[in-house]
Amino acid sequence: MARPQQYSSQKAPRVLGLILAAGHSRRFGGDKRLASFGEQTLLAATTAMLAPHVSSITVVLRHGECGEAFGLPADIHTLQAPLSPVGMGTSLATAVSELLVSNDSCHQRCEALALMLGDMPGLRAETLQKLMAHARFDAIVRPCHQGRAGHPVIFGRSFWPALAGLDGDEGARALLKRHALQVVMLDVDDPGILTDIDTPDDLSSLQ
Question: Which InterPro entries match (predicted)?
Answer without folding.
Answer: MobA-like_NTP_Trfase, Nucleotide-diphossugar_trans
